[in-house]
Amino acid sequence: MIKFPKDFLWGTATSSYQIEGAVNEDGRTPSIWDTFSKTEGKTYNGHTGDVACDHYHRYKEDVEILKEIGVKAYRFSIAWPRIFPEEGKYNPKGMDFYKRLVDELLKKDIMPTATIYHWDLPQWAYDKGGGWLNRDSVKWYVEYATKLFEELGDVIPLWITHNEPWCSSILSYGIGEHAPGHKNYREALIAAHHILLSHGEAVKAFREMNIKGSKIGITLNLTPAYPASEKEEDKLAAQYADGFANRWFLDPIFKGNYPEDMMELYSKIIGEFDFIKEGDLETISVPIDFLGVNYYTRSIVKYDEDSMLKAENVPGPGKRTEMGWEISPESLYDLLKRLDREYTKLPMYITENGAAFKDEVTEDGRVHDDERIEYIKEHLKAAAKFIGEGGNLKGYFVWSLMDNFEWAHGYSKRFGIVYVDYETQKRILKDSALWYKEVIQKNSIE
Ligand SMILES: N=[N+]=NCCCCNC(=O)[C@@H]1[C@H]2[C@H](O)[C@@H](O)[C@H](O)[C@@H](CO)[C@@H]12
Question: Does ligand 1 lie within 6 Å of residue 48's CB atom?
Answer without folding.
Answer: no
